[in-house]
Design a protein that fits this description.
The chain is an alpha/beta fold. The chain is built from 16 helices and nine strands. Strands 1, 2, 3, 4, 5, 6, 7, 8 and 9 form a nine-stranded parallel β-sheet that branches. α10 (212-218) crosses α12 (237-246) and α15 (291-301) packs antiparallel against α16 (309-325). FMN binds at residues 12-14, 65, 134, 166, 206-208, 228-229.
Amino acid sequence: MNCADWRISVAPMMEWTDRHCRYFHRMLSPHARLYTEMVTAAALLHGKRGYLLRHSAFERPVALQLGGAEPEELAQAARYGAEAGYAEINLNVGCPSDRVQMGRFGACLMREPALVADCVSAMREAVPLPVTVKCRIGVDEQDDYADLQRFTEHMVGAGVGTLVVHARKAWLQGLSPRENREIPPLNYARVYQLKKDFPQLCIVINGGIVCEQTTLEHLQQVDGVMIGRAAYHDPYVLARVEHAVYGEPLPDRDDILRRMLPYIENELERGTALKHITRHLLGLYQGLPGARGFRRVLSEQAHREKAGIEVILAALEQRDALRAAA
């Protein structure tokens, strides 16, 4: 295990980090470890497995995040992930949504560390890949550091080498998933302490990280930083982080978009609707003159039937016109 493999990563985000998003993010960040949206083990066992696991070699390394609480189901799902070429299997022990709780997985599993350990052990026996866990610092009334310590001890006992910790607790009742990403206060110090108490673990911190400066600050205390919503709303932050952490030259945004065009054209030929790709590109010019015009054209025209590359070119023309008028 090499902790450097988890130095920079992009969080798994439902309805956001699909394969088109990951392809785009890889353009911006050659080193980042990318994660799928959470996929339930049951869906892989009984659903459209090929569709759910589909990704391109260009995206790699990609981790498959699984949801579930049945060790045997998770073990089989992990096998499918390994066969599909994923680099890591990650267990979701952090999602607070009602639907996830009804399935007895996600953040509610923090109350059952022994069960999580059994799930991890089953997956580790099933695949040669790293099996990691993404959790919160606490859940509901179970909010003492001792509870997080106890949970982590179970993970270490099960053979976990990397723990991704969202530095907020989760309220399973009374807060929506969105509110759970914003209202519970961040407690980075607790994650830092966890690294001190478990130095053998790769500890990756997640939550509220929006720029390269905070990334560098966290890397002084823990092994890795996982960037979430900031990477989606302002994706060029990934390029800035690459520059700060790895010394990669900052890419030209227009060049990134040009490099996306062959991928988009290929997907259009395969029947993918343009809107499913361009929704991930809306923030590329965030904060720059003309960005609003670029977003508006994509938002208004990409959903049209048979929309093609001409929509992206029109969005760039609108951006340039607004930039010239500024």
